[in-house]
Task: inverse folding
């Protein structure tokens, strides 16, 4: 029964159907299936498949967002049950996420947050137009493993360097990954960022690599 | 400063899907619910669009070392400017915006319903692009009526005219407060769904190429095939 249900779970993510994913999550709980197994063996394969499709151009941005919402709906049902039984999902790492100061573009950054959360990272999304000092303070406060920085303008990319310089200056043990439409590999090398991705799916892989996973 | 009245372009659901990065034909077959969401977003969002086009025509005096000298001691400068506007008799600076109401609405929506919020963003992107196309067509047709040619629209951010270089030049020459548009210190135009551009008009101008050819994303952009017009 589990294998069949797991397949349906993955399909609900591929379909981007948050009502069905929530129903299936509840069905798993009612059937005594381990909620953690439901996430890792049921829903996650769906997230991974949508991600792979997006990465190779076989899925579009709205489909990715729909899949993320379907995953969130499933986790919202399963997480309370996990907490009640004293089981928690393994946190792969803590990520402080923001769009840099001077830039107010939200969507890409938020999507990265959704994908990282779905994949098991603890994400502290600080929003847009976030000053470097606030980012550093938050990273220190929560003991972040990674700071994720989005910039959608050539004129605000420079703030990514500012954050990296500040991290180095303070000797903080936090890695910095960057992204955004104008960000190139050359820019990443120049500012000595620890990681870079062109899209939200790639960001999950990069974050995992940085965490040694 | 003149404001172009009466331009309210019609936008269809395919434009909204394309603005979200999706291929309408594929999406129709694979995820018809997204087409419905885009259609609903269009119906909900359209009343929030405040189409405004501000423009200014300025005569060209000369071109020297990538500096286009304009009347009243104004100038435009940059490699792209020199490449395209040298033969122009006049330039038209154009600022197109859909205002901030849709932006506010979509940002609020995205917090509770990201799929619909993204579709509303698509409505905004499609709308400002349609507005810019309509404005360019208006000036091109006007030029053609006078047996004059027009260049492709040049915008800051294209190859040879960086945002940092071009945006302050345009904003210096336009009273952008008239349509409620401002430029931040990082050269971001607010409201976000705003486009700035300049076109050249003159007897010796022959339009050539398309804007994508001069876009900094031209090597990686997956959506170039969707832009079949000269803009």
Result:
């Amino acid at each position: 029964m589990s294998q069949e249900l797991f397949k349906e779970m993955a399909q609900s993510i591929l379909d981007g159907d948050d009502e069905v994913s929530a129903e299936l999550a509840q069905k798993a709980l009612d059937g005594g299936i381990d909620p953690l197994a439901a996430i890792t063996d049921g829903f996650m394969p769906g997230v991974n498949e949508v991600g792979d499709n997006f990465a190779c151009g076989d899925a579009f941005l709205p489909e990715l967002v729909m899949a993320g919402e379907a995953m969130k709906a499933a986790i919202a049902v399963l997480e309370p049950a996990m907490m009640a039984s004293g089981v928690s999902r393994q946190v792969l790492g803590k990520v402080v996420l923001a769009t840099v100061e001077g830039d107010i573009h939200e969507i890409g950054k938020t999507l990265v947050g959704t994908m990282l959360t779905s994949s098991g990272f603890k994400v502290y999304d600080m929003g847009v137009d976030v000053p470097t000092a606030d980012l550093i303070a938050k990273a220190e406060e929560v003991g972040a493993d990674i700071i994720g920085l989005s910039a959608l303008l050539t004129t605000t990319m420079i703030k990514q360097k500012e954050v990296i310089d500040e991290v180095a200056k303070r000797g903080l043990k936090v890695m910095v990954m960057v992204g955004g439409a104008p960000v190139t590999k050359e820019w990443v090398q120049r500012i000595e960022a620890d990681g870079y991705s062109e899209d939200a799916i790639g960001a999950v892989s990069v974050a995992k690599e940085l965490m040694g996973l | 400063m003149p404001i172009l009245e009466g331009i309210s372009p019609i936008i269809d659901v395919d434009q909204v899907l394309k603005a979200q990065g999706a291929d309408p034909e594929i999406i129709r077959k694979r995820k018809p619910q997204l087409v419905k969401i885009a259609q609903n977003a269009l119906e909900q969002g359209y009343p929030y669009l405040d189409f405004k086009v501000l423009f200014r025509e300025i005569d060209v005096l000369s071109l020297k070392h990538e500096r286009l000298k304009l009347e009243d001691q104004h100038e435009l400068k940059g490699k792209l400017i020199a490449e395209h506007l040298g033969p122009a008799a006049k330039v038209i600076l154009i600022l197109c915006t859909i205002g901030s109401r849709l932006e506010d609405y979509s940002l609020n929506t995205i917090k509770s319903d990201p799929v619909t919020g993204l579709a509303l963003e698509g409505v905004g992107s499609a709308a400002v692009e349609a507005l810019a196309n309509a404005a360019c067509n208006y000036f091109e047709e006007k030029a053609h009526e006078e047996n004059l040619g027009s260049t492709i629209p040049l915008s800051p951010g294209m190859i040879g005219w960086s945002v940092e270089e071009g945006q302050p030049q345009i904003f210096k020459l336009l009273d952008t407060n008239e349509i409620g548009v401002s430029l931040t210190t990082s050269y971001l135009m607010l409201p976000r769904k705003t486009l700035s551009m300049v076109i050249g008009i003159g007897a010796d101008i022959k339009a050539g190429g398309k804007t994508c050819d001069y876009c900094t994303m031209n090597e990686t952009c997956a959506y170039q095939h969707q832009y079949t017009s000269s803009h």
